[in-house]
Hints:
By secondary structure, the protein is of the alpha+beta class. The chain contains six helices and eight strands. The chain has helices at residues 35-41, 54-62, 80-89, 122-125, 182-194, 200-204, and strands spanning 25-31, 50-52, 97-104, 107-113, 130-136, 142-148, 151-156, 207-212. It has an eight-stranded antiparallel beta sheet, with helices on both faces. Strand 6 and strand 7 (151-156) form a beta hairpin. It is globular.
Amino acid sequence: MSRPGGEEGADVANGLRSTAYDLGYTFTLCEGIRPQDLLVRMGAEPHRLQELSDDVVAELQMRPEDGHLNDLDFLDWEDESLVSRLTEGGFLSHPEAIVRAGAVPGWAYAVENITNRAPAHLAALSQGTRAYTVFRSVNGEHEVGYAVDGQVLAYYKPVVRHMAEPDERRVPGFEYSGEEPPDVAFLRFLEIEHGIHVSWEDFRAPLNTAAFA
Length: 213
């Protein structure tokens, strides 16, 4: 996991764009629910959630398949309670995805580095509310989605309007101009549309976290 780079690296203190990782990521936003509830709607078990920082999750994700647990710098093996909680939560057994979730006024958000678990659960995430998601692959492919009250209303690869399919369902209010990467444009749209700000410092701090096998 790496700090945002390139032109948008200057925006790490400004809004949601601080979540834009170089190796690909998924960012999801749900209105009116708690971070814990967001993770549960993605399939997490509440008692397995832990509060982990961005750096800790990066270490867990970068550990080689044949790597030893002693290679984890953050892990104090004398802290038996921590080792037990991480083991029970599935964090030490090479989970397929690790998702962190935080909150801003009126919304919960989730970030995945590299993986894209949230889009498959977009309908569940939007039960009784609304949810947005944006995914960028390590190869630079982009997808955005929007769901309301359990129904996915749009999920597509953003293109400039004159190139879009005539009957394509789109995220209301989001028009992609092509002047910047689609994921950055979508995060900027969410910032402006809903007045949401997540500083880089807040994002790196410990957040509710779930591991998915």
